[in-house]
Structure formats: structure tokens, C-alpha cells
Amino acid sequence: MAAAFRKAAKSGQRPHRERAQPAARRRLGLLEKKKDYRLRADDYHKKQNALRALQKKALDKNPDEFYFKMIRAELQDGVHTIKQPKDEATPEQVKLMRTQDIKYVEMKRVAEAKKIERLKSELHLLDAEGKSPNKHVFFFDTKKEVQEFDIATHLDTLPELVGRVYNRPTIATLQKERLKGATEPAHLKKLAQQRKNQYDLLKQRIDREKAMFVVAQKIQTRKDLLDKTHKVKVKNETKNSPAIYKFKFQRKR
């Protein structure tokens, strides 16, 4: 309370005091504030106005007025319910539509697979992220040979080219032929960025192809469920796999 008085004094406002509760009415609880009474009164009048508006709307309504919902609604146990429309397609037609859907998705998936193979053939996956690093094991007879081992000398190439997994010419090749390709750091950085973009595109196409394969499986599962054969669900559907059902064996003629 003292903190509230100090805060009111700093702001220049008159502090608010609660009205005293008479001892005879203490059992009835605290007195209602004027602000609370005003809010409750406004809410009451708002509801009364809404009820008057609804009553007026009901009186002005034409009892012979027609609206299309009358055709689709019926009274059941005193409650209006909307009739559910019947399926206008036969089971054979639904199966055919599902077959067409599967063919379309499969066609798109095969197109993505071909694009993936073409990108792989262009990039060769030489330094793709996530690929396990290549290992080149050298064998020696003594510890002295291990200590004196120099990988650049052993591979007959320059120390700057040891870290490459591709396009690593030998010293003899460099002496006979001119170095082909980009050598400037800016150009090399640009080529590296282009290669990274191609790998990102390849990853996106691989993810898209996997998603289409899952969609085709889910459509095929829904198509199989149209049969009247007794079936039991074994596994629920997930984002990466369709639902699995076990069908009762039926001998075909």
C-alpha cells in the first residue's frame, strides 16, 4: 500500500482508497467498485440490444422464403442435420482415377530420376558433402621410412596439389604441358560456388524424387483399400511411409 501511495505521489495523481466496509455487511464481501458495475452494466445492455435485434429479424422474416439449404437439411430428433451428399463415382471409376494419379506421379518421379542421373554424371560426386573421405594407405618396412615419408614426393606432384582428389597432375606432366583451366583465386572461388550450387540442386532433386515415391505408395495403398477384402492395419501412415495393411488371402481363379 505504501508503495502505491509513493508511486501516486510521484506521478502527481491522487491515490485511490478502497471504500470502508461496514461491520454489519462484512459477511457479504467487499463492496463492488464503480468501474466494475459500469462494465457489468454495459455488458448487460449489449446483450439486450443483440436479443432485440434477433427478435426483430425473426419478426421480419418471410415464412415462405426459400433457400437451398432446405433441400439438404432434415429434422432428426428435433435437431436440424445436413444430408451428406452421396458419392457420384462408382468404385471402378475411383480405381481408374487412382490409377491415373499413380501413373502421373510415377512419370514425374522417373523424370526426376533421369535428371538426378544426368547431374551425377556431370559432377561425378568428387567432393560432395557427407561423402566419406577417400583413404590411401601406404605400407613401409621400417619406422625410419615412415618418419622420412613425404606424400608429395611419393605421388610425384606439387605440395599444393596434394589435397586434391581429382585433377592432380604429376610434375612430369606439368613440365611437358601447360596448365589448363582457371588459376586465378577469384575464378577458382567462382567455380567452387557454382559447383556447390549444383550439389544443392542435386540434393533437392533427390529429396523430391523420394517424396514422389512415398506419394505413389500412399496412392496405391488407398487404391487397394477400395477392395472389399477383409484387412487389418499393421502400421500407421507416416510422413515418409504409407500405412501397412494385412489382407486376407483369397484364391484367384
UniProtKB/TrEMBL annotation:
Q: What is this protein called?
A: Probable U3 small nucleolar RNA-associated protein 11
Gene Ontology BP terms: rRNA processing
Keyword rRNA processing listed? The answer is: yes
Q: Which residue intervals are annotated with compositional bias (Basic residues) in the record? A: 7-17
Give me the segments passing through the membrane. Answer: none
Q: Extract one GO cellular component term from the record.
A: small-subunit processome
| Family note | Belongs to the UTP11 family.
* Stretch list, region Disordered: 1-28
Question: Known Pfam families for this protein?
Answer: Utp11
Originating species: Rostratula benghalensis
Q: Which UniProt keywords apply?
A: Nucleus, rRNA processing
Q: Which InterPro entries match?
A: SSU_processome_Utp11
Q: Where in the cell is it found?
A: Nucleus, Nucleolus
